[in-house]
Amino acid sequence: MSSQTPAAPTLSTVTISYDQLKDTSADLSDKIELGFGPNGLGILSVSNVPGYQLLRQNLLCLAPRLASLPEDVKRQLEDPSSRYNFGWSHGKEKLESGKPDTLKGSFYANPILDVPTNDQSLVQRYPSYCGPNIWPHDVLPELELAFKALGKLILDVGLLLAHHCDQYTSNGLKKHENGSLQQILLRSRSHKGRLLYYFPSHHCTSLVDGDGGSMSSWCGWHTDHGSLTGLTRAIFTRDAAEIPCPDSIAGLYVKTRSGQIVKVVYGEDEIAYQIGETTEILSGGQLCATPHCVRAPKGEVASGVERSTFALFMQPNWDEKLVFPEPVNTHEFIIPKGSISFGDYTENVLDKYYDPNA
């Protein structure tokens, strides 16, 4: 989409308060359906989570510091064997155009387990999940604590949300041998956090398809392939000072089930959660994932603006068997008949976004 495209409508997420969420006997089916159901945006938010604001601030303020470390130091934090899914990554992921993404840098880690397994055969087979975390202990020691604290909080809140999703699906997930969404996530050792830093425009060497006004100019269109993604609202900075988003068109965009594109907003004190493909498939379409992208600010107001955010990908264990209905055509690729482990499913999806020879 070019910058000539008419402005998309802006919609606020369906919001559930933390007090409502932690009441396991509450009936939140209406809100789950509005946010995650077949006619929903595939996203809702949770408000008033105790301690969240401080943990968000503590971690996101570290993203620019991490990105500004010397290049040789950041190279020591890279893990090519995991296809850069542990530690630092910049310019390794492919955009929609097939070009390397130099607009943002990422730091990946499992916020719950530093060493998910000691089985080296599993590390070789599923390197993006089974490898150990890589922390910059010498140059940015505070990152580990801040990353783990926010990641665990988002996971805990997400597990409460998963309980209410299970109540909504009324045995939809329980028809599968995997069990309920909450059970799948509780036993998983594969959760992955991603701290994202978007470089200021004058530091970028390229723009998406040469068009800084592209709808997906900061993060290309994609559908999360896991179970549930927890997402903070971004922090914008210029010259190390926090500022409001400088351009009203910038932000998160979602493509609805009917094909309409809308901008989605939620409060800075709220945690947003998005449904992933795996949950859509295992729920038989009762809980729906939607394609989404991030649009960058444009024009002079965008000069020197940095963006920092954090996502927690809550997902099944690498050996969790996914039993797919027949036929199923996912957003990412067509699954063969029968079943596949989540780890193998992930490796197929990563083939789309990473060059194995990078």
Topology:
Blueprint: E1 10-12, E2 14-17, H1 18-21, H2 29-36, E3 43-47, H3 52-60, H4 63-67, H5 71-75, E4 87-90, E5 104-109, H6 120-125, H7 127-130, H8 142-169, H9 181-186, E6 192-198, E7 219-222, E8 228-231, E9 235-238, E10 241-243, E11 251-255, E12 261-265, E13 271-275, H10 277-282, E14 292-295, E15 306-314, E16 321-323, E17 339-341, H11 342-353
Parallel strand pairs: 1-12, 2-3
Antiparallel strand pairs: 3-13, 4-5, 5-6, 6-15, 7-14, 8-13, 8-15, 9-10, 9-15, 11-12, 11-14, 16-17
Helix pairs in contact: 2-8, 3-8
Folded structure, characterized:
This is Non-haem dioxygenase N-terminal domain-containing protein. With 358 residues, the protein is an alpha+beta fold. It is built from eleven helices and 17 strands. It is globular. The model is unreliable at 1-5 and 203-213 (pLDDT under 50).
What would the keywords be for this entry?
358 residues, alpha+beta, 10-stranded mixed β-sheet, 5-stranded mixed β-sheet, 11 helices, 17 strands, disordered N terminus, Non-haem dioxygenase N-terminal domain-containing protein, IPNS-like_sf
Number of strands: 17
Shape: globular
- Main β-sheet, in a few words? 10 strands, mixed
Radius of gyration: 19 Å
